[in-house]
Design goal:
Length: about 160
């Protein structure tokens, strides 16, 4: 249903809520600054697993173990900050993309943790199980990133916009 001016009243109510970051340094949201590390390291873990499969060099198994561990622990840090933002900022909490992003990111952290934990304890073989978890983590990274991008580009979450002169 639309009001007489053609705007959706539900969207209008959501847009009234603040989206100013609650966890920021000098106005820069920490979540946006920290997600790059787990993203890059999830992809690095996948790359190391592919290189292990291709070359058989045990170096890649060690590299994958370290990349998976740092991806997991940096993902926990980014996830805690993102969860704080979700719970503290009404304008973020009111958007469906925030919840979709959060659920995908939590699933990603769980898969990254299983990937690292299985490698660390020796409970799973890097090939094929670690590679499978790395592929799943890469897909979840894409899904979480898609929804995170929607929050930034469609809803303006985390942007510092200067007033026009």
């Amino acid at each position: 249903m639309s009001e007489s001016n053609g705007t959706n009243p539900v969207i209008s109510k959501i847009e009234e809520k603040t989206t100013t970051s609650a966890v920021a340094v000098a106005g820069h949201p920490l979540h946006a600054m920290t997600v790059h590390f787990p993203i890059a390291l999830v992809i690095a873990t996948l790359a190391a697993d592919i290189m292990l499969w291709w070359t058989g060099d045990p170096f890649w198994e060690r590299a994958g173990l370290w990349a998976a561990g740092v991806a997991f622990f940096s993902g926990i840090a980014a996830g805690l900050i993102g969860t704080a933002e979700l719970l503290l900022v009404p304008g973020i909490r009111a958007r469906v993309a925030s919840w979709a992003h959060g659920i995908a990111a939590m699933a990603l952290i769980a898969v990254a943790g299983a990937n690292w934990g299985g490698r660390f304890t020796g409970a799973l073989d890097t090939l094929p199980h670690g590679l499978g978890l790395s592929l799943l983590a890469a897909m979840l990274t894409g899904l979480a990133g898609w929804h995170g991008g929607k929050l930034i580009f469609d809803h303006g979450i985390g942007l510092m916009v200067s007033p026009k002169d």
